[in-house]
Amino acid sequence: MTAVLEISGLQKTYRSRKGARKALDGFDMVVEAGQVHGFLGPNGSGKTTTLRTLLGLIKPNGGRMTILGREVPQHLPEVAGLVGAIVESPQFFGNFTARETLSLLADAGGVDQRRVDAVLEVVGLRERAAERVKTYSLGMKQRLAVASALLKEPKFLILDEPANGLDPGGIREMRTLMRTLSDSGMTVLLSSHILAEIQLICDSVTIIAAGRRVAAGSVAEVLAEHRSTKVKVRLEPGVDMFGAAQALRAAGAEVTLEQDHFIVGNASRPAQITRLLAGHQIFVSELTPVTVDLESVFLQLTGTAPVEGANRQVDDVAATAGNGWGQ
């Protein structure tokens, strides 16, 4: 495959009276042609800084970036007409209608006016195109932003939280649109916090934390590399779950009690559970691996899983390395 986007060793440091803060610390990313690529990271991880740097809105302190084979920001004017983007919250003139807004943007970009109705149809705003933007909901404004990014039929589309404010039906429509665009040959870079949607729609992902890449590859590869060692354990009716949990904890297991079962979090060798409990005359009725999903992998890699009794701050990224029980 040909890479539409390549980022290598990207650096960006913000300086203030409080000192220097590294927003990007040698960040790398590759997006292959024709893919829907998910760009994931917690708040403050460097996602938006990366996108703004890529589009020439922020000057990096180091590193290399290419779009469609051309190094940017030096050659950004040469590829700008092939890139559509929405970054952060879209802003429009409230007194203009959606059609007027897109018509002005088409004129400014030298785009055929016939594209206006085409993109209004694609994003589902055809019937509301004559209404002023100030009457639009957040979700409708997001649709208008996507329409504006599609006006020039870009080869590379960058979308930052395009599902923000959409209802469930709108989210599904956006998912279908992303796949349709990809099938037509367009490459889509999608930044989102809706991880279940990313898992459904994306061919590949990059996960960033504290300005560095912590995972990259196809969704299947990333999930496989971080296979869960958790297992769900259910006992025979009437058996003391608390006593079973205590026996496992004494052997080094991480046990979380639920209403009618418990989870062993570091069970790299599940057979140990049945063997140990049988030694206490406690018998298992169910032993099921807990399937890993993109959300759990994300929380693990970025160190942002909720901790009981603690309030995680935006820039907190915890160490996540650990050893499996019984190894």
Strand order of the largest sheet: 6-7-8-3-9-10
The major pleated sheet works out as: 6 strands, mixed
The structure class reads alpha/beta
Beta-strand residue percentage? 25-35%
Q: What is the residue-averaged pLDDT?
A: 89
Q: What's the helix count?
A: 11
The span between the termini is: 39 Å
Going by CATH, what is the homologous superfamily of the largest domain? P-loop containing nucleotide triphosphate hydrolases
- Overall helicity: 25-40%
Low-confidence stretches: 318-327
Overall geometric form: elongated
Explain what the structure shows.
It comes from Actinoplanes sandaracinus. One of its GO terms (molecular function) is ATP binding. Pfam families: ABC_tran. This protein is an alpha/beta fold and 327 residues long. It folds into 2 domains: 3-225, Rossmann fold (3-Layer(aba) Sandwich), CATH 3.40.50; 231-289, Alpha-Beta Plaits, CATH 3.30.70. The protein is built from 11 helices and 14 strands. It has helices at residues 47-54, 76-79, 98-109, 114-122, 138-150, 168-183, 195-201, 219-225, 241-250, 271-279, 294-302; strands at residues 3-16, 19-32, 36-40, 62-67, 70-72, 83-86, 156-160, 187-191, 204-209, 212-218, 231-235, 255-257, 262-264, 284-289.
